[in-house]
Write a structure and sequence with these properties.
The chain is of the alpha+beta class and 187 residues long. The protein has a domain of 120 residues: Cytochrome b5-like heme/steroid binding domain (Flavocytochrome B2, Chain A, domain 1). Helix content is 46%, strand content 9%. It has a four-stranded mixed beta sheet. 19% of the residues are buried. It binds protoporphyrin IX containing FE. The site of protoporphyrin IX containing FE has 10 residues, from helix 5. It is found in: Endoplasmic reticulum. One of its GO terms (molecular function) is metal ion binding. Its main location: endoplasmic reticulum. Belongs to the cytochrome b5 family. MAPR subfamily. Keywords: Endoplasmic reticulum, Heme, Iron, Metal-binding, Receptor.
């Protein structure tokens, strides 16, 4: 075979090889793109976005007039008040009950009598924080009806976060709980 014939045969053999092999530059690039796209799709779907931090959980507790008092909204703290033994978290109504608000006198207090009588007078609030709760004596049907209206409003608007009891009742129930947990064994 002469030189030209030999080269033609060589070229023909090379073209045949490159046409059948899958390892061409273009295939390599396409394969890389495919792998990258697959990887980024899979890794994105595995990444769970962080959940937004919710408000702290609310725990139902038993309060006395004294332990309710700190919940008066000072220093941006929560605001609670009690109405007929129910403790409401009225923090969403900070503009009403927060420091400087028109109804700030009720914050951290038993607001029952003041609401029933539509009065901000200080003698509407329980004075002795360690004494008995207001028995609501002296309130007439109109006041009781007004009170019920307030309760309905608050029940639809605010969370109930506890109950208000006198210190005496609190201590009595704490004693009863301890006795239940550690009953005398008769020795
Ligand atoms: C001049 C007399 C008064 C005026 C003009 C007045 C005005 C208002 C207004 C505009 C609201 C907002 C209502 C809303 O947007 O839902 C409100 C709510 C309220 N008011 Fe009065 N008020 C007066 C007297 C009183 C009195 C005497 C009391 C009780 C002692 C009282 C207790 C409340 C309470 C508890 C709320 C509800 C706040 C809440 O939704 O948490 N207000 N008042």
């Amino acid at each position: 075979m002469d030189y030209v014939g030999h080269r033609v045969a060589q070229e023909a053999a090379r073209e045949a090889t490159s046409a059948t092999t899958p390892f061409t530059a273009l295939n390599f690039i396409l394969l890389s793109v495919l792998l990258y796209t697959t990887y980024s799709t899979v890794s994105r779907s595995n990444t769970v976005p962080p959940l937004p931090r919710g408000p702290p959980p609310k725990v139902f507790r038993t309060y006395t007039p004294r332990t309710l008092l700190p919940f008066n909204g000072q220093d941006d703290g929560p605001i609670f008040f009690a109405v007929r033994g129910r403790v409401f978290d009225v923090s969403p109504g900070r503009s009403f009950y927060g420091p400087g608000g028109p109804y700030a006198n009720f914050a951290g207090r038993d607001a029952t009598r003041g609401l029933a009588c539509h009065s901000f007078d200080s003698d509407m609030l329980t004075e002795d924080l360690d004494g008995p709760l207001d028995t609501l004596d002296g309130l007439g049907p109109n006041e009781m009806e007004a009170l019920q209206g307030w309760e309905e409003t608050f029940m639809g608007k605010y969370d109930v976060v506890g109950k208000l009891v006198s210190v005496a009742d609190y201590n009595a129930s704490a004693k009863a709980t301890t006795a239940d947990a550690f009953p005398a064994n008769g020795n």
